[in-house]
Amino acid sequence: MSDDDPTFSIPQRPIRRYRRHGGVEYEGETVFTLRPERDSGERSLTALAESVLERGPYRYGDWFDLPMPVYLAHDDGTGDTFRVAIRDGTIKLYVLPDTDPPGLRAFYNRLTRRSESSWTVTCRSD
To answer: Which domain of life does the protein's organism represent (predicted)?
Structure first.
C-alpha cells in the first residue's frame, strides 16, 4: 500500500434498526465513491465491478429492483459485507454496520488491478 492509496477509514457507521412488522432500515450513511479518471460509461463500470465480484472471494447478488445495478457483496477473505452500486459514472461502496476498512480496501485494490484507469476516492457520511 502506497501513501497515496485510500485508507477507507470509516468516520461513521450506520445503525441498523429492525422494524416491528418486518424489514430493516438504516440510520446514517457512509459512502465511498470511486470515480475513474477516464469516463467509460455505466455499462463498462458495471462489467468491471461484476468482473471483480465474479473472480472472488465474493458471494454477491443483485436482489434489488432498482433502475441501477446494486449488489450486496460479502468478501469471504475479510468477512466484510457492503453494498456496491454503479451510478453517475462512479462505483459507490456503501458501508453497513459491520463493514471494516480491509474489505473496502480489498475491493478497491482488485478493481484498480483490473482497470487501466486511475481512480479518485471520496467519502461522504450523513
So the answer is: Archaea
- Domain range summary for the chain, segments of one domain joined by +: 30-125
First-to-last alpha carbon distance for the chain, in angstroms, is 28
The DSSP code for 125 is E
pLDDT in tens, 48-96: 999 999 998 998 887 667 778 889 999 999 999 999 999 999 999 999 9
- Is pLDDT above 70 for 2? no
What stretch of H or E contains 112? helix 101-114
CATH architecture label of 30-125: 2-Layer Sandwich (3.30)
Q: Cis before residue 57, ω within 30 degrees of 0?
A: yes
**Planar angle of CA 60, 90, 109, nearest 5 degrees:** 60
